[in-house]
């Protein structure tokens, strides 16, 4: 599968990774190469095969509805590059 | 399940060149009533200090993993039962991927292709007509945090307290045909949730909100392009937003334009909807099953046990009030709107005439509570006390008028109604001898009026009123009426 | 001092319990080795000397009182993918260069809870994505091994220790710690173990908790040890493993006493040899080593059977769809808002984009983009869904094989250690390193690599045993037989000492 420059830019934006114009060609070629290579999966007949929904053979464990966590505002905010009064601070988001 | 609406002319919106049909679908987001969050053990409590109900998992620290809350699963199933819906024994949690500062993981854990609850119905009564509105599905998902944008020109402040709280997203089929229907639907949904105890439906706190999908079409035509109005947080605004948006779309179409499918916000101050700038780019959510979780499997036994444990639902209660207690459909619907109100009424109605009890609860009690802005839980008159007043009337101990005075006394001063009546001599006078004497006195004092009354019997009412006044309202009005007529000879 | 740092974990444990040596002197010996070697090898990205000595001191007190826990006083290295409380955890990425967690991973807590001493954090490929440890933000790891050069002297070429757990494998091979923790998503424990002559086991998916380990691909990641011997690996895994309520994918099953099972041999064990692993272009020496392994097991009483795992060749391309897809989502949280590095931008989107541009290395970006692409609208069915279906078939291949055999024997890697830069030209070339190991992660099975001999270049080669779910015990038993037959595979000279 060959991807084009527009797709490379769109994917980079979806992934929120800035790429320079000079990066595009290289990324395009690498991604195309990898996607071409994985195309071989089309050789496999998967009709009627279920996708793997669980790796380990057990059931989803549930927990009781009890408050056991939180109450640690200073801890969760401690590593933030920019915080104020225990809020995380980010550049203004326009709705 | 949802049948196409009968085309009622009063549901159509008149445009410049004809009538338009408004098609509405609602996605109601209800916060699940639970102590802790859907996938973490932090508190769901409202109004806490910023980022204090946030754990390492909620903050999406490296290496953190989700663990599901069993009560949230149970609440979703109970709600499904309340909507007469199919509960799916196998459902899957998917990641909905996008970037936003109040979404710490960079994805929301939701359910995409295989939700926990399938199709159901909600019955609504609009202007005397009963309609069944189809529910498409219900799924569990994480709520996002909150961003505050108006505290600083350059910065936004993010609080993750709400992030990870369990939400039920209940999607209706596009069966609604007017803003009124949509409002009634949401109110009914809210009542059902509150009856079940699966959500407190508090729209002021943001625990219940709706995304409203609106499109218009000429009756009989294909469905039009819809727009989604996000996060409408009051029933009043839901109605306004639908009307305003339908008008907007009709205006565009009548001008020969086309509707762009987009996400919009309702601005109540301006009374308009506007496009959401940041959502203009089409979102590619890249849904895939969350590999940190396994599929959710629930046994038929568990599903059945939750159904058995349900309280009586609004529709059932309403039917019982009508069929067993003889109430009108309207009165029954008023009483069942809030479960606490219905419980109060039933306590009053126990062993008494249902209609009388309903009359007193709705007209006297609710009237007074509304006037003072009080909730039933803050009522100074208990169901016992109100029942006591009703008993005194039906025994003939007091008249209807005196009963209202008694109500006022109990409201402001409290006390046992029977004791108050005894203590203050409020008993109805039924002693015919005493009444006869008063009637004769009044007749004797007003000979001209008596003449007129003999000629026109309708005027006898004046005498009845005078006798009632003279007795301080305590005379039995029926007895007075009979004696006045007898004495007048009419 | 070499007498101390050259001990196996089991030997050191015995000597401590016999009071032949003290924990503090053992830890001190390793710290000195690390100081001498790390400028050349770059295996450690952080050395927690003070903390280690404090732990060792406490260990000595307990040993003295006869209150020794399972791993009391034993110094190990800890992969920088595990969150460590109060100690920087970077996942060897610039985006986490300043991150100090306020919490400890469950596996880490299990180890320190049994008295193990943490010498420091070990280097790895950024976010565990790589097979050579050349993509670390802390610089590459140099393998303690060297190829034979001309005229009998070793070549100066810097060799890779494998990846992503390159720091772990290099440190163990160079006697910088008794053993090390590592993680394996497509072969990241087994391949580096094979390339450095050490033992590495990836347990069954769900055997160990993933809580507190920086996630790469959630349905594939597993924690496991790298050690000098099979016995050491068994001891460590026994402590690392166990159910964790905080990890929904961890399995609630008791952990067997792996050490107790050692020495049982392989009499009557049915060993499967999958024909599909004999890939085109398989080098003679790897094939010969494989045959040698078969012979060793047969001599020890095992029954050898040829089996077919028909979908083997599709495991690698399927892996390079599933793993990047999950990674693209797992790494979305690295946005500079709540922790890590932030590069300021004009607005929030610009901030995200610049932060992640600067914070992630090339291989990570590549995989995030592949993952984003294969999940995106219109491509999900063709790629991700397809790969997950192929995964079911790969697992079914093994399920069918377990009807006939108890364990499967393959080479661990197609080649021995290569030199820096030899495989970084084309990403696909590097991906092929994992051709024999990814099947195991895709099927969720346990796999162990045991050093089996040397290549013609004088560098290690390993053999892999793949087992039934939760049958790590058989892997240790069979692994021991191979290990014994192969004899020690040790670095010839500690060239970084200047000798």
List the helices and strands and how they pair.
The complex is a heterotrimer of chains A (95), B (490) and C (499).
Chain A: H1 5-14, H2 21-38, E1 62-63, H3 73-78, E2 83-84, E3 87-91
Antiparallel strand pairs in A: 2-3
Chain B: E1 13-15, E2 18-31, E3 68-69, H1 70-82, E4 90-91, E5 94-97, E6 107-110, E7 120-126, E8 129-142, E9 146-148, E10 155-159, E11 166-172, H2 179-196, E12 208-217, E13 227-232, H3 235-254, E14 263-267, E15 272-275, E16 288-289, E17 296-297, H4 300-308, H5 314-325, H6 329-336, H7 339-349, H8 354-372, H9 383-394, H10 400-413, H11 417-423, H12 432-445, H13 447-455, H14 460-470, H15 477-488
Parallel strand pairs in B: 13-14
Antiparallel strand pairs in B: 1-2, 2-11, 2-12, 4-17, 5-6, 5-16, 7-8, 8-11, 9-10, 12-13, 14-15
Helix pairs in contact in B: 2-3, 5-6, 7-8, 7-9, 9-10, 12-14, 12-15, 14-15
Chain C: H1 2-5, H2 9-17, H3 23-41, E1 44-47, H4 49-65, E2 75-79, H5 106-113, E3 117-122, H6 166-173, E4 179-184, H7 190-196, E5 199-202, E6 222-227, H8 230-240, H9 258-261, E7 270-274, H10 284-299, E8 303-307, H11 315-330, H12 348-359, H13 362-375, H14 381-401, E9 407-411, H15 427-431, H16 438-443, E10 447-454, E11 460-467, H17 472-486
How would you explain this protein's 3D organization?
The complex is a heterotrimer of chains A (95), B (490) and C (499). Chain A has 95 residues and is of the alpha+beta class. Chain A is built from three helices and three strands. The longest helix of chain A has 18 residues. The two termini of chain A are 37 Å apart. The mean pLDDT of chain A is 93. With 490 residues, chain B is α+β, with helices and mostly antiparallel strands. Chain B has three domains: 295 residues, no CATH class; 111 residues, no CATH class; 57 residues, Arc Repressor Mutant, subunit A, CATH 1.10.10. Chain B is 39% helix and 19% strand. Chain C has an eleven-stranded mixed sheet, with helices on both faces. β1 of chain A pairs parallel with β3 of chain B, so a sheet runs across the interface.
């Amino acid at each position: 599968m060959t991807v084009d420059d527009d797709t490379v830019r769109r994917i980079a934006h979806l992934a929120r990774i800035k790429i320079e114009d000079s990066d595009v060609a290289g990324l395009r070629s690498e991604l195309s190469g990898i996607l071409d290579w994985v195309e071989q999966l089309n050789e496999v007949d998967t009709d009627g095969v279920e996708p793997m929904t669980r790796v380990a053979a057990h059931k989803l464990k549930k927990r009781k509805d009890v408050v056991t966590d939180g109450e640690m505002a200073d801890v969760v905010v401690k590593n933030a590059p920019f915080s104020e009064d225990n809020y995380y601070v980010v550049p203004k988001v326009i709705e | 399940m949802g049948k196409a609406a009968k085309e009622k002319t009063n549901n159509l919106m008149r445009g410049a060149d004809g009538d338009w049909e408004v098609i509405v679908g609602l996605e109601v987001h209800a916060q699940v009533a639970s102590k802790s969050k859907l996938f973490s053990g932090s508190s769901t409590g409202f109004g806490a200090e910023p980022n204090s109900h946030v754990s390492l998992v909620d903050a999406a620290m490296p290496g953190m993993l989700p663990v599901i809350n069993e009560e949230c699963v149970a609440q979703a199933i109970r709600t499904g039962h309340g909507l007469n819906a199919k509960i799916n024994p196998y459902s899957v949690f998917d990641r909905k991927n996008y970037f936003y500062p109040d979404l710490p993981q960079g994805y929301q854990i939701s359910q995409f292709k295989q939700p926990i609850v399938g199709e159901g119905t909600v019955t609504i009564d609009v202007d005397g007509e009963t309609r069944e509105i189809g529910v498409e599905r219900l799924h569990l998902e994480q709520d996002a945090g909150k961003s505050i944008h108006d505290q600083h020109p350059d910065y936004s402040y993010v609080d993750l307290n709400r992030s990870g709280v369990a939400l039920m997203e209940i999607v209706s089929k596009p069966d609604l045909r007017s803003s009124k229907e949509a409002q009634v639907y949401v109110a009914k949904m809210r009542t059902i949730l509150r009856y079940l105890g699966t959500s407190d439906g508090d729209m002021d706190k943001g625990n219940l909100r709706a995304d409203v999908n609106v499109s218009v079409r000429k009756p009989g035509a294909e469905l039009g392009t819809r727009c989604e109005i996000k996060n409408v947080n009051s029933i009043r605004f839901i109605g306004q937003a639908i009307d305003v948006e339908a008008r907007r779309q009709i205006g565009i179409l009548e001008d020969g334009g086309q509707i762009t499918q987009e996400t919009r916000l309702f601005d109540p101050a301006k009374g308009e909807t506007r496009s959401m700038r940041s959502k203009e780019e089409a979102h590619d959510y890249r849904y895939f099953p969350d590999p940190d979780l396994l599929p959710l499997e629930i046994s038929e036994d568990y599903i059945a046990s939750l159904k058995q444990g349900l309280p009586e639902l609004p529709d059932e209660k309403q039917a019982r009030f009508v069929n067993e207690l003889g109430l009108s459909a309207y009165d029954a619907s008023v009483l069942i709107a809030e479960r606490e109100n219905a419980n109060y009424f039933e306590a009053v109605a126990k062993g008494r005439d249902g209609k009388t009890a309903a009359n007193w609860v709705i007209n006297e009690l609710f009237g007074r509570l509304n006037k003072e802005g009080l909730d039933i839980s803050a009522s100074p008159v208990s169901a016992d006390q109100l029942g006591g007043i009703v008993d005194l009337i039906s025994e003939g101990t007091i008249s209807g008028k005196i009963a209202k005075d008694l109500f006022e006394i109990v409201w402001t001063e409290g006390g046992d109604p029977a004791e108050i009546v005894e203590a203050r001599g409020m008993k109805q006078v039924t002693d015919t001898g005493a009444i006869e004497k008063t009637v004769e006195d009044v007749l004797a004092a007003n000979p001209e009026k008596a003449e007129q009354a003999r000629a026109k019997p309708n005027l006898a009412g004046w005498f009845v009123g005078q006798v009632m006044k003279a007795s301080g309202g305590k005379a039995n009005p029926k007895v007075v009426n009979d004696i006045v007529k007898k004495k007048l000879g009419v | 001092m070499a007498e101390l740092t050259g001990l196996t974990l089991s030997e050191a444990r015995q000597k401590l319990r016999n009071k032949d040596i003290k924990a503090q002197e053992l830890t001190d010996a390793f710290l000195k080795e690390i100081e001498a070697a790390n400028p050349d090898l770059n295996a450690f990205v952080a050395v927690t000397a003070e903390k280690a000595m404090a732990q060792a001191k406490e260990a000595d007190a307990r040993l003295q009182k006869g209150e020794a826990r399972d791993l009391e006083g034993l110094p190990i290295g800890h992969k920088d993918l595990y969150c460590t409380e109060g100690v920087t955890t970077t996942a060897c990425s610039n985006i986490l260069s300043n991150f100090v967690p306020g919490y400890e991973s469950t596996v880490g807590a299990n180890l320190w809870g049994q008295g193990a001493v943490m010498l420091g954090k070990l280097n790895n490929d950024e976010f565990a994505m790589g097979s050579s440890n050349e993509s670390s933000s802390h610089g590459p790891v140099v393998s303690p091994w060297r190829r034979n050069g001309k005229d009998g002297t070793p070549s100066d070429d810097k060799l890779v220790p494998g990846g992503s757990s390159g720091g772990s494998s290099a440190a163990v091979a160079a006697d910088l710690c008794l053993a090390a923790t590592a993680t394996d998503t497509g072969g990241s424990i087994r391949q580096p173990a094979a390339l450095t002559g050490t033992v590495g086991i990836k347990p069954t998916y769900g055997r160990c908790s993933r809580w507190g380990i920086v996630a790469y691909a959630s349905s594939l990641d597993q924690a496991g040890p790298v050690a000098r011997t099979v016995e050491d690996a068994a001891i460590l895994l026994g402590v690392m493993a166990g159910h964790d309520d905080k990890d929904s994918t961890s399995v609630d099953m008791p952990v067997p006493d792996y050490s107790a099972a050692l020495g049982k041999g392989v009499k009557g064990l049915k060993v499967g040899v999958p024909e599909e692993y004999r890939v085109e272009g398989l080098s003679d020496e790897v094939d010969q080593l494989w045959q040698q392994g078969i012979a060793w097991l047969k001599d020890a009483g095992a029954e050898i059977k040829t089996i077919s795992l028909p979908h083997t060749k599709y495991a690698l391309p399927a892996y390079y769809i599933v793993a990047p897809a999950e990674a693209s989502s797992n790494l979305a949280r690295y946005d500079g808002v709540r922790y890590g590095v932030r590069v300021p931008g004009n607005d929030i989107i610009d901030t995200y984009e610049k932060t992640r541009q600067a914070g992630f290395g090339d291989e990570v970006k590549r995989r995030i983009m592949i993952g984003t692409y294969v999940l995106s609208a219109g491509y999900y069915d063709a790629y991700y869904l397809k790969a997950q279906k192929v995964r079911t078939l790969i697992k079914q291949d093994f399920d069918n094989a377990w009807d006939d055999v108890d364990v499967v024997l393959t080479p661990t890697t197609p080649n021995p250690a290569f030199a820096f830069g030899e495989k970084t030209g084309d990403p696909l070339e590097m991906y092929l390193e994992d051709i024999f190991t990814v099947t195991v992660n895709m099927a969720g099975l346990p796999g162990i690599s045991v050093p089996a001999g040397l290549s013609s270049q004088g560098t290690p080669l390993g053999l892999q045993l793949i087992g039934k779910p939760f049958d790590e015990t058989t892997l240790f038993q069979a692994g021991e037989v191979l290990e014994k037959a192969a004899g020690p595979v040790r670095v010839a000279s500690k060239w970084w000492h200047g000798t």
